[in-house]
Amino acid sequence: MTRNHEDAFRYDKMVEKALRSVVRQALQEVVDEGIVDDHHFYITFFTDHAGVKIPDYLKERYPGEMTIVLQHQFYDLEVDSEKFTVMLSFNNVPERLTVPLSAVTIFADPSVNFALQFQPLSEDDGDEIHFEAEELDVDKNDKEKKKGEVISLDSFRTKKDKDKS
Questions:
Q1: Could you give the number of structural domains in the chain?
Q2: Does residue 57 sit within a domain?
Q3: Mean pLDDT of the chain
């Protein structure tokens, strides 16, 4: 099977998947170990993205994007190969949110000045954001703390991809 030039080595998609796996691994560590020290996450996502499940009143209040904070008052966090679910309280009403990893636009942990910003994915691209179980093994002794790093994927996009946006 021969691929054409445009489909060969889609480094932008490879990098996108790798960086989204950072989000998935961080959330999985919270499931496994809980939040440690001052760590907390700001997660911004598209509310109208396929697979996002939030109450209608939140979708009306946040018609494009919504940011949630996972710090002290969240529970039942679950992570799988393509999404995470979490219980949060809005005006003292507990609500379950389901967010596909492909809907996430920003992931930040201000306690260590770390943030990732993602470009919007098409629904076709989102189908490729799945993580195998072996990708979840994180050696807790080899983690590096990066200070003040924001990574934009624009530099990895081809001109053709930028023209589509």
A1: 1
A2: yes
A3: 79
Token pair for 139:
């050696």
Element spanning 162, H or E: helix 159-164
Alpha helices in 115-158 (DSSP H): 123-126
Residue stretches of the chain with pLDDT short of 50: 126-152, 155-158, 165
Backbone angles phi, psi at 156, to 5 degrees: -95, -10
Does residue 4 form part of some domain?
no
Cα distances from 157 to residues 13, 81, 121, in angstroms, run 9, 24, 12
Give me the residues paired with residue 74 across strands: 88
Percent of the residues in the chain that have a pLDDT greater than 90, as a whole number: 54
In terms of residue numbers, what domain contains 79?
11-130+145-164
Task: Give the CATH number of the domain where residue 86 resides.
Answer: 2.30.30.220
Closest CA to 45 of 16, 62, 65, 26: 65
Return the SS3 of 44. strand
Residue 27 — φ and ψ, nearest 5°?
-65, -40
Q: Is 64 left (phi over 0), alpha (psi -120 to 50) or beta?
A: alpha
> By the 8 A CB rule, do 45 and 99 touch?
yes
| pTM beyond 0.90 | no
Total residue length of the chain: 165
Q: Is 1 among the domain residues?
A: no
